[in-house]
Amino acid sequence: MNKHQEKNFSGEKKKRPSQSRTDEKRGGQNRSTEKRDNKRSGKNRFDQVDQLNKQDEIETPETNEIAYGYHAVVEVLKQGKVNKLFLQADGKGQNFETVKALAQENLVPVKWVPKSKLDLLTDDGIHQGFVAGTTPYEYLTLDALLEKTENPNPFFVLLDELEDPHNLGSILRTADAAGVDGIILPKHRAVGVTGTVVKTSTGAVEYVPIARVVNVNMAVKKLKEAGFWIFGTDMEGTNFKEWNATGKIVLIIGNEGRGISAGLKKEVDEMLTIPMNGHVQSLNASVAAAILIYEAFMKRR
Length: 301
Known about the structure:
Elements: H1 26-40, H2 42-56, E1 66-68, H3 70-78, E2 82-88, H4 94-105, E3 110-113, H5 115-121, E4 130-134, H6 142-148, E5 155-159, H7 165-177, E6 182-186, H8 195-200, E7 210-213, H9 216-225, E8 229-239, E9 249-253, H10 262-265, E10 270-273, H11 285-300
Parallel strand pairs: 2-3, 5-6, 5-9, 6-7, 8-9, 8-10
Antiparallel strand pairs: 1-4, 2-4
């Protein structure tokens, strides 16, 4: 939801649409630029570590996919998706013993490295002394997601060009807690599953199915043909407390700055709004998603 859509959501009360659905200075600058470039490219990050490793013969992950942080690493180890594990050289305590045992159980090679190496691998992320090189995330197709879902009345969340990995990770964490049956992401112009997403989700990414689609509009049309009601978020719409969230539903959360794209809005059956009263009248996308997901959770119990 953008800052306009998230403003004061106080639209008129609406009824649920009918079944027929309506139509609708250089040094500092260079360092800053270099850091941004490194964050955009996992390959650059690993290349830097490779250069350092020539001095101490420490190997880097076989892929550019990483998970970091204790809980995230534990989950990917349990799922058998780790090909190499990096632990902080001076790490001690039960958490390290737990991770070592899981690595041994899954035959994952372990390297004990200085904290500086882990900082570089994670772009100074909060890794807690744990970094895992993982296999690439395997997304589902929309058809596979529908086939995989056992719930006869599924609840999917579609994220329209969401860009912040922290938002995606937080939404995945909420989705897992509230029983969302799947997340749908666009293949282009949107964040995918990254190390930051895995870390922020505290491992929930391993439990919530994620489908990735090339054309979001076509995907929504297909879902409508399958009997799903499509709900969006806007500054004007039905108060979310009056939302009929039963049955097969899809909740669309828009881009952090632009909201839901104009073309996709035409496919929405009903817009929902979150009333607000305050000086800063906007909500973070993941916070808005959490409010709506839990509202649906309570009404679907």
